[in-house]
Design a protein that fits this description.
mainly alpha
Length: 192
């Protein structure tokens, strides 16, 4: 019976009635077999309230398939959709971990920049390793700045040598050496 219920809820994601789509998305929360239907619904959903319910359902599922669906929205042209995807993925720090290397190595600097935010809720030493790896190879100053911003909050002392090298590499980029000095002071406990 639950399979039939799930199937009817998945079909309701196509309803012309927004409240019905919202209710269906909420009912499918945590049902791994619903990921393909939720993904398809999310791709066509025009209303932010229903998109939010669909993303919440995907969060509650929290498996690799739902992470793949949510992370694809880091490429969205709609800033609101990108922000919602980041917020959703931030709530899944352990399930997102296997995807971080690919996201931080993405060919699109905007995706790399947004991926730095996903490290914010991870365990500090893991976040530090991921972000330092990114900073060591990153050529885009804005991506480095985003990683440094997160390290300022969650970084461990292991980040200090990477930050020093970054400051030297981007010495001619006015805002980065200052941001790095703030991060280093905070990480080493010397902030005033």
């Amino acid at each position: 019976v639950s399979g039939e219920t799930s199937g009817s809820q998945q079909a309701t994601l196509d309803s012309p009635d927004a409240d019905s789509r919202w209710t269906a998305a909420r009912a499918l929360a945590g049902q791994a077999d619903a990921v393909p239907a939720l993904a398809a619904a999310l791709a066509r959903e025009p209303l932010s309230r229903v998109r939010e319910a669909i993303m919440t359902a995907l969060i509650r599922i929290g498996n690799a398939a739902s992470i793949e669906v949510l992370s694809s929205y880091l490429r969205s042209q709609d800033a609101g959709v990108r922000a919602a995807a980041i917020e959703a993925l931030q709530s899944l720090p352990e399930p997102i971990a296997p995807f971080m290397s690919a996201l931080l190595n993405d060919g699109d600097s905007d995706v790399r920049l947004l991926a730095t935010e996903l490290a914010r809720n991870m365990e500090a030493s893991h976040a530090t390793r991921l972000l330092c790896g990114l900073i060591e190879r990153e050529k885009h100053p804005n991506v480095c700045a985003a990683a440094i911003d997160v390290l300022t909050e969650v970084g461990t002392p292991e980040a200090l040598p990477t930050l020093e090298r970054c400051a030297a590499r981007f010495a001619a980029t006015p805002f980065l050496p200052f941001a790095i000095s703030v991060a280093m002071n905070r990480i080493s406990g010397e902030e005033s």
